[in-house]
Specification:
heterodimer; A: 519 residues; alpha+beta; Ubiquitin-like (UB roll); Alpha-Beta Plaits; Rossmann fold; 3 domains; seven-stranded mixed beta sheet; five-stranded mixed beta sheet; B: 431 residues; alpha/beta; de novo design (two linked rop proteins); four-stranded parallel beta sheet; 17 helices
Chain lengths: 519, 431
């Protein structure tokens, strides 16, 4: 284990580690300017900003490609280094359009941030800037502004090394060099927006996010992506208007540095326009709205009325809820309702076992594993879906409680399943999303709005058995309930709203506190 | 006086073909080498003091010694991407004596244990490319290439690869990238090519003239080779001369030869009535020498380095008093701007910036601080990048504007050349 001294501080690193690795290890990545280096990509060594002075070497070296050797004395705070970095910054900026006021990256831009720390503050470039292509459509999700690009090649390396799809390349040379795609081969893979995240400037922007919010008007909180059973660690960006985007947060055990494009879209069902806002009771043509808690009391009434024959009460669970909620609802059903008719709704059996080799899994639920663990604990694991179908067909189900989708889009079998559920005398439908298909259900049905994973504290077990606890980040539908609260109402207990978020904008902490930041 | 070792028979047309080359002693050294211990050849090259003739002047034997003995296949590549403005000595050799190169390559490949070798040739050299291709075919037909060369049991495949005309592919790792089918861009070092080069295997890259010289190291022996040149700059070298001399061309002189004599005798002196103003001694990236410096310079690595310049590829550009140095720098800075590969930011942006400042001056848009700015920008491009192109762009700028500052300031102030009196409308435009 070689030891070296960096800016006077001694540090021991792994054999083969670079000086840049040492800065990261010391949690001092902000103390060294860099653009092209990315911990999850190969070394390009082209931005030439991570200059360091090594004792005994007259030439400045780049930290990202210099392996630490025993006794090496390194600094990056000498005048020589500072001067080099200042000019290095200026070379990056002489042809940059400096259009920060209309640039989506402003506020989280590597050029802005690092210029503040290392800039020359005395621009001397008075010649005409190089003109390059603007608003280049690279693919379904990503737009390029070549003039903003600093050619760090992170995006190119990402498509070469991570997705291995090789859509991007650097075309032409010198100051005419530009990022681009090959003819008829757009940047169209399920990880394309990661290129936007790792772009240190505003060259690559996300079509979904661009021009929608200034980033300094957004708060962020740590959570996980609920789009599949991988459970990628993400930051959710929101303000009082709602959620605007998700970005991956590094966690080597779960998702590395990335997330998929499908997961990016999972913020959409969180927002009010997709949400069930009030409880909705429909019996035939009669429709009645009420606050969620009243809806839950109505549901509890239905359960109580069917309780004379506990077997006529059944519970359907999906993999969309937290461990704590499963425990509450299952134990309530067992102990208070006295029914063991608890069933697991597998939303997409055909693709359930699929995996793309990177992150995206066919099980489009965040907590299938947690659900199965809860059912096993309570001895309900052997209940088969066919038993439920048979019971529904025979008309023996009085009240059916369905802890349904929080994200309706991952339930392609929604209509088919509802047609089957409608054979119950009464259906209690728990969901966060609003759906015309559900609204059209012919049997008496009460829909109760549920909280999403960003609005409650809960634990989710991913495909590999890693339990991740996330805390409430914001409240989008504050009156919505958790499954635990519904269980309390059914059991006639006081509703403890203890885990309700304090309100929009509270900073939340995930138990995985990997480092943050765009770089 | 010229000392013709490599170029002894360049004036004989028959030397180009295999039969003529053989009749004049060609391939005798190959036969000798194939009977020698490999290490003995490497030792002789090391002892001869032969230094890389492509520009950097690194001792060839020492470079060869960097190859690891790890049992991996290794490659010998010949750099024939001769693109430094002013340089055309390799073209001359290939046109007049292609077998000299091939023989040098077979001997070197044998010494290094390489069984596959490529010549990477400048894309624009279509004529020399045809000649070399023909020579390679002749060598294969005569059993000098391929399997079991001259019954020695040594196999070597040699192929010619034509570049696409990028200066940067003359940088050895840029060349390797291009040969691998990638965009011609230098690779980050370490790893160095001797350890991980072509196809990530140990690779030696040598210049055309260097490889051909190996033949004569063997022919004349260490002492014979060292009989020419100086202690540290051994042997003879081909110099390509262009500019304002009566007889531009390629000349072979021993290293250490006085530049003054070279210009006056070999090159036939300047045009009548003209005086010497400046000399670029080693290709356009070498810092320019003033007439005073040039007249006391000798053509060897050490002397030119002591004058703050370099021997480089041996491309001598002679500039007389009829030339405007602003105009000359305009041409030079345009070249490096055009040829920067664009990988490293200081070079990509800096070459463009330098070019634009000089171009603005030539267009009459020069600003008072421009001379100092040129030096500041160029200074910050030196030693900051993966390869030496950034330095190659910066060095001429610094030397031109410091040594001929008055011409630049005059042009900025008056909007026209101090030398020719011509202004922007007459000046050569570089955009």
């Amino acid at each position: 284990m070689p030891k070296c001294t960096i800016n006077g501080q001694e540090i021991e690193v792994k054999p083969g580690a670079t000086i840049m690795d040492a800065f990261y290890q010391m949690d001092q990545k902000e103390k060294i300017a860099h653009y092209c280096y990315h911990p999850a990509l190969s070394i390009a060594g082209v931005c030439r900003l991570c200059m360091v002075e090594i004792e005994g070497n007259p030439r400045l070296q780049i930290a990202c490609n210099t392996v630490v050797t025993e006794g090496m004395k390194v600094n990056n705070d000498s005048e020589k280094v500072k001067e080099a970095v200042k000019w290095g910054m200026d070379f990056h900026l002489i042809n940059h359009p400096l259009d920060c006021p209309i640039c989506d990256q402003a506020g989280e831009c590597g050029l802005q941030d690092q210029y503040m720390a290392y800039g020359k503050y005395d621009p001397e470039m008075a010649e005409r800037k190089v003109k390059k292509r603007k608003v280049v459509d690279l693919g379904p999700r990503v737009v390029l502004d070549s003039e903003r690009c600093i050619l760090c090649s992170r995006c190119v390396r990402f498509t070469e090394e991570v997705t291995k799809t090789n859509e991007l390349g650097i075309f032409n040379r010198g100051d005419r060099a530009e990022i681009g795609t090959f003819e008829d081969r757009p940047l169209d893979n399920n990880y394309s927006v990661n290129t936007v995240d790792i772009c240190p400037v505003g060259a690559l922007t996300s079509k979904d996010f661009r021009f929608r919010q200034r980033v300094w008007l957004l708060k962020d909180a740590e959570t996980i992506c609920a789009g599949c059973s991988t459970g990628c660690n993400v930051d959710v960006y929101f303000n009082k208007e709602g959620v605007f985007r998700l970005k991956p947060r590094p966690n080597e055990k779960v998702n590395g540095h990335w997330m998929c494009d499908v997961g990016r879209d999972t913020y959409k069902p969180l927002n009010r326009d997709a949400r069930l806002l009030d409880a909705r009771l429909s019996e035939g043509s009669k429709v009645e709205y009420m606050i969620p808690l009243m809806g839950a009391r109505k549901a509890a009434e239905w359960v109580r009325e069917a309780k004379a024959d506990p077997k006529s009460v059944a519970l359907v669970l999906t993999g969309q809820y937290s461990n704590e909620e499963y425990e509450a609802i299952v134990s309530t059903f067992k102990a208070d309702v006295g029914s063991d008719r608890i069933f697991h709704w597998v939303n997409n059996p055909e693709t359930f076992e699929k995996f793309d080799g990177l992150l995206f899994r066919g099980d489009r639920n965040p907590n299938t594993k947690g659900l199965l663990q809860a059912m096993q604990r309570h001895g309900s694991l052997n209940n088969t879906w066919n038993e439920l179908v048979a019971a529904l067909e025979s008309g023996s189900v009085g009240t059916l409680v369905v802890a349904g989708p929080l994200d309706l889009s991952v339930f392609p079998d929604l209509g088919e399943k509802l047609a089957s559920f409608a054979k119950a005398k009464r259906v209690v439908w728990l969901s966060s999303g609003r759906s015309d298909v559900v609204d059209a259900c012919p049997s008496p049905l009460i829909q109760i709005p549920m909280r999403t994973h960003v609005e409650k504290t809960g634990t989710y077990v991913n495909h590999a058995g890693i339990a991740q606890t996330v805390h409430a980040a914001l409240a989008i539908v504050p009156k919505a309930l958790t499954l635990s609260e519904v269980a309390d109402v059914i059991a006639g207990r006081d509703v403890k709203r203890g885990n309700a978020p304090a309100g929009v904008g509270r900073r939340a902490q995930n138990e995985f506190t990997a480092h943050r930041g765009a770089l | 006086m010229e000392t013709k070792i490599l170029s002894e028979h360049y004036h004989k047309p028959e030397f180009r073909a295999l039969a003529g080359y053989k009749a004049l002693g060609g391939y005798e050294m190959l036969a000798k080498a194939l009977k020698m211990e490999r290490q003995k050849i490497i030792d002789e090259v090391k002892a001869s003091g032969l230094r890389g003739r492509g520009g950097a002047g690194f001792p060839t034997g020492v470079k060869w010694g960097f190859l690891p003995n790890n049992g991996e296949p290794r490659y010998l590549l010949c750099n024939a991407d001769e693109s430094e403005p002013g340089t055309f000595k390799d073209r001359k050799m290939i046109e007049r004596a292609p077998h000299q190169l091939i023989e040098g390559m077979i001997i070197s490949a044998y010494a290094l244990g390489a069984r596959k070798s490529y010549i990477y040739m400048r894309g624009e050299y279509t004529g020399p490319g045809r000649i070399l291709r023909q020579a390679i075919d002749e060598a294969y037909a005569a059993g000098l290439l391929g399997g079991n060369i001259l019954g020695s049991g040594f196999d070597l495949d040699l192929d010619l690869y034509m570049g696409a005309g990028a200066y940067i592919c003359g940088e050895e790792t840029g060349m390797i990238s291009s040969l691998e089918g990638l965009k011609g861009q230098p690779k980050l070092k370490p790893p160095f090519p001797a350890v991980q080069g072509y196809l990530r295997k140990p690779t030696i890259v040598n210049n055309v003239e260097t490889l051909a010289s190996v033949v004569y190291v063997l022919r004349d022996g260490v002492a014979g080779y060292r009989a020419h040149g100086t202690e540290k700059s051994a042997g003879t070298k081909l110099f390509s001369v262009s500019g304002n001399v009566n007889r531009p061309g390629t000349y072979e002189v021993p290293l250490g030869y006085p530049l003054k004599d070279f210009i006056e005798q070999e090159c036939g002196g300047l045009k009548p009535g003209r005086t010497l103003k400046a000399v670029v001694p080693g290709g356009s990236s070498a810092p320019v020498l003033t007439a005073d410096e040039a007249l006391r310079a000798t053509l060897d690595y050490e002397n030119l380095a002591s004058l703050g310049s370099m021997l480089g590829s041996g491309a001598i550009i002679v500039i007389d008093d009829s030339n405007c140095m602003v105009d000359v720098l305009g041409t030079v800075s345009h070249f490096y701007w055009h040829e920067s590969c664009g990988q490293c930011t200081p070079c990509r942006e800096g070459t463009g910036w330098l070019h634009k400042i000089v171009d603005s001056i030539l267009h009459g848009r020069g600003k008072p601080g421009d001379v100092d700015l040129l030096v500041k920008v160029a200074d910050q491009m030196k030693g900051r990048t993966i390869c030496a192109l950034s330095d190659a762009a910066a060095l001429p700028v610094i030397s031109f504007v410091t040594k001929f500052r008055d011409e630049f300031e005059y042009y900025i102030r008056e909007g026209r050349s101090k030398v020719t009196g011509k202004g922007p409308t007459d000046a050569q435009m570089h955009h």
